[in-house]
């Protein structure tokens, strides 16, 4: 991934990851229950770490290997050991996130995101395995009925083929009656997104407001080897950016800048510790045209903060560094073999970051710059002794 993202680790933004022992010291594994099945899961586990700048989260999805998980660790270490830079705004507008539930559950899910009239937009999961377009339309129409002023989005997680996506999006855009904001990852991959845009234009699919249907890339950014390819190929109108898979707020910021596209910051179904990093990113984007998908603490029964980051009035305040409650950490703590499994994952991801760092140091020494990573630490970042990898 690093080879493609023009994200420099030398120069003014470089920083050094802390020692493994220091990261493990005081790290806790927690499990939070979801109110509704989401992404096929009923609970979310996360490893939380405390650094000198605050708490960071490491919660790659269970099936992710060490390489992919290393981006998530980098993001968590950035939160704990480096910090995020100054915000440009105090509040971020937040969309409600609607799992693939039956219409009779839509209202109770929506209400978790605050007063219905305050919700600026709703992202609705569609194309769920085992469900039909009729199920999606019924859910979509129920959302539209309950929050008629809200913008509507459909997230298919790449679940449609191009041939399925064209009529499905035409039907959803019609059901949205002018409120359709965009379709998120309707088909899998980068090229297929570009092809779908052409197919929609050829089929004359437009929103009822008369505009072309906008396409957002999510997995095509966060799981791609090269997150900027979407932009280069003109495969999407906007990108969904998530701090953990993109390796931190600093990297995500640069990806947005370099893409030249509008961005929506979303969660990775993080605890409120991880959501704080998403809010830090949203707060640093000069242009934030859409409500962000950072309200997912509302999908948990409980969280690790005394005041979980649940939207009020359609927005979240940008909290800066957050501190979990000792009681809640204890209540949700996971021990035994499952905790060991998480610590092993952390060790493996840390080894990937350490090897990357070592390679960069060697390259920098070979180039004769003489500037080791310590010399490149950003002003304001902690100058930690760190390990020389
Ligand atoms: O974007 C949102 O409104 C909330 C976040 C969200 O939907 C997701 C978080 C984590 C995993 C994904 O399945 C899902 C997504 O695809 O965007
Ligand atoms: Mg998505």
Automatic annotation (TrEMBL):
Region (Disordered) location: 360-389
Gene: menC
A Pfam family it matches: MR_MLE_C
Alphabetized UniProt keyword annotations: Lyase, Magnesium, Menaquinone biosynthesis, Metal-binding
Protein name: o-succinylbenzoate synthase
Species of provenance: Nesterenkonia lutea
InterPro entries: Enolase-like_C_sf (IPR036849), Enolase_C-like (IPR029065), Mandelate_racemase_C (IPR013342), OSB_synthase_MenC1 (IPR010196)
Catalytic reactions on record: (1R,6R)-6-hydroxy-2-succinyl-cyclohexa-2,4-diene-1-carboxylate = 2-succinylbenzoate + H2O
Keyword set includes Repeat: no
Single GO MF descriptor: O-succinylbenzoate synthase activity
Active site: 125, 242
Lineage: Bacteria, Bacillati, Actinomycetota, Actinomycetes, Micrococcales
Cofactor: a divalent metal cation
């Amino acid at each position: 991934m690093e080879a493609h993202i023009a994200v420099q680790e030398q120069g003014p933004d470089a920083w050094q990851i802390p020692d493994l022992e220091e990261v493990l010291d005081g790290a806790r594994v927690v499990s939070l229950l979801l109110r509704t099945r989401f992404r096929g899961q009923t609970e979310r586990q996360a490893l939380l770490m405390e650094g000198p700048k605050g708490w960071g989260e490491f919660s790659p999805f269970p099936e992710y290997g060490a390489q992919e998980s290393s981006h998530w660790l980098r993001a968590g270490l950035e939160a704990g050991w480096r910090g995020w830079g100054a915000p440009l705004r105090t509040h971020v507008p937040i969309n409600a996130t609607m799992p693939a539930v039956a219409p009779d559950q839509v209202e109770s899910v929506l209400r978790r995101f605050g007063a219905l009239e305050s919700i600026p937009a709703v992202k609705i999961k569609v194309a769920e395995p085992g469900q039909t377009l009729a199920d999606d339309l019924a859910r979509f129409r129920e959302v539209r009925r309950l929050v008629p002023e809200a913008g509507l989005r459909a997230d298919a997680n790449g679940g449609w083929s191009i041939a399925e996506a064209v009529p499905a999006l035409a039907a959803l855009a019609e059901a949205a009656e002018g409120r359709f904001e965009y379709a998120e990852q309707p088909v899998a991959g980068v090229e297929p997104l570009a092809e779908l845009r052409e197919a929609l234009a050829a089929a004359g699919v437009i929103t009822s407001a008369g505009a072309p249907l906008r396409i957002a890339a999510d997995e095509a950014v966060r799981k791609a080897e090269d997150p900027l390819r979407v932009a280069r190929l003109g495969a999407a109108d906007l990108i969904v950016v998530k701090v953990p898979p993109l390796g931190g707020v600093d990297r995500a910021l640069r990806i947005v800048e370099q893409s030249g596209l509008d961005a929506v910051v979303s969660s990775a179904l993080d605890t409120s510790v991880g959501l704080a990093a998403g809010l830090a990113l949203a707060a640093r984007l000069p242009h934030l045209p859409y409500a962000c998908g950072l309200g997912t603490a509302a999908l948990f029964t409980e969280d690790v903060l005394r005041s979980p980051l649940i939207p009020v009035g359609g927005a979240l305040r940008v909290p800066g560094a957050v501190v979990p409650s000792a009681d809640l950490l204890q209540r949700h703590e996971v021990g035994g073999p499952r905790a060991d499994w998480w610590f092993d994952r952390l060790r493996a991801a840390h080894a990937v970051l350490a090897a990357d760092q070592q390679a960069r140091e060697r390259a920098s020494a070979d180039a004769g710059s003489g500037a080791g990573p310590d010399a490149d630490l950003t002003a304001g970042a902690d100058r930690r002794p760190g390990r020389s990898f």
